[in-house]
Amino acid sequence: MDEAHVRILLVDDRPENIMAMSSLLESPDYLVVTASSGKEALRCVLKDDFALILLDVQMPEMNGFETARLIKSRDKSKHIPIIFITALSQAKENVIQGYETGAIDFIFKPFHAEALRHKVEAFVNFYRHQRTLNEQNELIKIRSAELEEMNLKLLRTAEELHQTEALARVIGETSSDTILTLDAEGRIIAANPALKAMFGISEEDAFGCLVTKLLPKCKETPEAYFTTAENGQHIVETMARHMGGHDFPVEVHRGKASLGGRSIYVYSIRDITVRRQLELERDMRFHELEHQVAERTEELQESNDSLRDILESITDGFFTVDNSWRFLYVNREAEKMLRIRQDDVIGHSMWDVLLESDSMTFRQLHQAALQGTPTHYEVYSQLTGCWLEVRVYPKKQGLSVYFTDTSVKKRMEEDLRNSQARFHKIFQASPSLISIHSTKDGRILDVNDSWTSYTGYTHEEAVMKSVDLNIKTGADDEAELWTASSDKVVHGIKISYSTRSGVVRTGLLSTERIEIQGEHCVLTVITDITERVELELEMSRLDRLHLVGEMAAGLAHEIRNPMTTVRGFLQIAKTSTQRTSGEIINLMVEELDRANTIITEFLSLAKNKTADRKAQSLNSIVEAMFPLIQAEAMLTGKAVQLQLGKAMPLYLDEKEIRQMLLNLALNGLEAMQPGGQLIIRTNTNGTESHPVILEVEDQGTGIQKEVLDKLGTPFFTTKEKGTGLGLAVCYTIAARHNAKLEVTTGPAGTVFSIRFALHPLIENFA
């Protein structure tokens, strides 16, 4: 072993001591290895062997006594002599403790340099002599074992020789490999039975043939081969030829032996076709694995880069420290919040960098490090000037720390509390009846003062007994009972509800699904419109009386004309001695029928009819009226076309819609010349409030501007024999269906559009 391999281990935590003693002990006879701590010394002992260890007693973390005890506890290092170097008191108990840990000597500071050097050299020489003795003893053991082994081999050789001959014969006969015995020129003098299966030639036919017949590429004779071949190079892969004419890969093992003073050669030939295929598959698999490894390596690198990008892009501050509280990584957000730079703090203790850290952070981080459990806390940081939410995750190498500025969250929580307080005030001060129901079982969770005032129930009765207001939607004949468990969210639908005293009141119901402390609820708001409905009914009654008054004057004028005609003819008939002609009687009947028509339409317009409405298809009503309208059109040489769009159910009075459609269609047919076409169409291209449209379009000459403003006025007509009540009835029917009747006219024709609103119940299912 080279002299440089003799090592002295010098252990001291003070760099100046290491430098001084290294210079003092510097020598070409040995190598001085240094360690600055007990842990580093243990790593050195695990890695190398040492002639001597000079060990300082006073060191942080692990002192010299603990380090020596661990070194002596290992079989591999317990033989290394240890000399303690210390400035401690020479008290007897300290010296005894040192010897108990395995030391062979103490050197007290200050020490004599020359004495230390001589002492170290003595241990080096002792180590060198000891190592030489160990090597010689090991060599003697090896030689003795070899002699014993050779003796045993000689004893076994004779016995094995006989067994080998028999075994060789059996192997040759049973082996799947072809075994050829050749002379010096390469002629086959013997072969085993596998020859026939492998090459397609019998042993008798192969006898005397050159081996090149079977192995074309082995052109040199066996004798020439063994003359030039290097030792151990007797295995070759080549191509063999089957007697059938095809080549196949083989592995040839060549051997040489002497028999009766002459040399013979043995070729063992193995078909490696399958092996070559397996090797090819293995190579392909290997390349695939290489590719996969490369891809995986690239993925890992990308993942690592992505992780770093994520850590750099997150809005949380993040840093990691090792077990000595030294910074290992700091992301950008942490740099910004802690007012530090990563390059300046990496490798430095966080407590030196973050001098203004609060006591809670100090305590929480140390607790997480000691207990090895994650911790989570909030603290107001003087360093950042804001509230921080901190999460600490311990690991073997140290701690990972995430922290987030929660000042905005704190403000939001305060705003939420204020919002809840405002909501409570609004909830209680609202004039509407507000209640909160659980969707699970319909329980009333809370009600406001208006609810108790209108219903007559107390707050305790509502919450404890969950009273039922018997809320119904729709008219009496189609009313549906509303419950809090309903999935429908409604807005402003007209309902009726019952008070404690049994009085039925009217309101507008709006609902919204909310969540309170994890429980799904329904917020219901009822705006009581009982007084408003009563007022509207009274106003409607007065309007009808006013309208009837206005219409009465027109009605008297319209009826007076046919009555005057009839009275005149009757007076003539009274004074005349001749019988009244049939023509005069027919004229009087026509005038009376005209008066009757005026009175009928007037009554239809004036009366407050209750609509018999129900959910049905507008298209179905149009299709039912189509044959009647088409027959009327054909009588006057005109055509009718239907363009029906998407069918959406509406709440309609079928008789009234039929009357309105027939009035508009007949008006359109009368406005056109023969050959004109009337189009009746439906679609859902209307506005959000009135999406369904019924249109009646004619190809007449249009309506004059001065006439448009008077459309729908009772007894106003442009027809020679019209009553002026048809359009007025249409406007009344549209109003009863909450629809809008609009007119668009021009030289190419006129379009009457009725825009229907969806019923609230249908709207919620649409």
UniProtKB/TrEMBL annotation:
<keyword id="KW-0547">Nucleotide-binding</keyword>
<dbReference type="Pfam" id="PF00512">
    <property type="entry name" value="HisKA"/>
</dbReference>
<keyword id="KW-0067">ATP-binding</keyword>
<feature type="domain" description="PAS">
    <location>
        <begin position="303"/>
        <end position="373"/>
    </location>
</feature>
<keyword id="KW-0597">Phosphoprotein</keyword>
<dbReference type="InterPro" id="IPR003661">
    <property type="entry name" value="HisK_dim/P_dom"/>
</dbReference>
<dbReference type="Pfam" id="PF02518">
    <property type="entry name" value="HATPase_c"/>
</dbReference>
<keyword id="KW-0418">Kinase</keyword>
<dbReference type="InterPro" id="IPR013656">
    <property type="entry name" value="PAS_4"/>
</dbReference>
<dbReference type="InterPro" id="IPR036097">
    <property type="entry name" value="HisK_dim/P_sf"/>
</dbReference>
<dbReference type="InterPro" id="IPR011006">
    <property type="entry name" value="CheY-like_superfamily"/>
</dbReference>
<dbReference type="InterPro" id="IPR004358">
    <property type="entry name" value="Sig_transdc_His_kin-like_C"/>
</dbReference>
<dbReference type="Pfam" id="PF13426">
    <property type="entry name" value="PAS_9"/>
</dbReference>
<dbReference type="Pfam" id="PF08448">
    <property type="entry name" value="PAS_4"/>
</dbReference>
<dbReference type="InterPro" id="IPR005467">
    <property type="entry name" value="His_kinase_dom"/>
</dbReference>
<dbReference type="GO" id="GO:0005524">
    <property type="term" value="F:ATP binding"/>
</dbReference>
<keyword id="KW-0902">Two-component regulatory system</keyword>
<dbReference type="Pfam" id="PF00072">
    <property type="entry name" value="Response_reg"/>
</dbReference>
<dbReference type="InterPro" id="IPR036890">
    <property type="entry name" value="HATPase_C_sf"/>
</dbReference>
<feature type="domain" description="Response regulatory">
    <location>
        <begin position="7"/>
        <end position="124"/>
    </location>
</feature>
<dbReference type="InterPro" id="IPR001789">
    <property type="entry name" value="Sig_transdc_resp-reg_receiver"/>
</dbReference>
<dbReference type="InterPro" id="IPR000014">
    <property type="entry name" value="PAS"/>
</dbReference>
<feature type="domain" description="Histidine kinase">
    <location>
        <begin position="554"/>
        <end position="760"/>
    </location>
</feature>
<feature type="domain" description="PAS">
    <location>
        <begin position="419"/>
        <end position="466"/>
    </location>
</feature>
<feature type="domain" description="PAS">
    <location>
        <begin position="164"/>
        <end position="208"/>
    </location>
</feature>
<protein>
    <recommendedName>
        <fullName>histidine kinase</fullName>
        <ecNumber>2.7.13.3</ecNumber>
    </recommendedName>
</protein>
<dbReference type="GO" id="GO:0000155">
    <property type="term" value="F:phosphorelay sensor kinase activity"/>
</dbReference>
<dbReference type="InterPro" id="IPR035965">
    <property type="entry name" value="PAS-like_dom_sf"/>
</dbReference>
<keyword id="KW-0808">Transferase</keyword>
<feature type="modified residue" description="4-aspartylphosphate">
    <location>
        <position position="56"/>
    </location>
</feature>
<dbReference type="InterPro" id="IPR003594">
    <property type="entry name" value="HATPase_dom"/>
</dbReference>
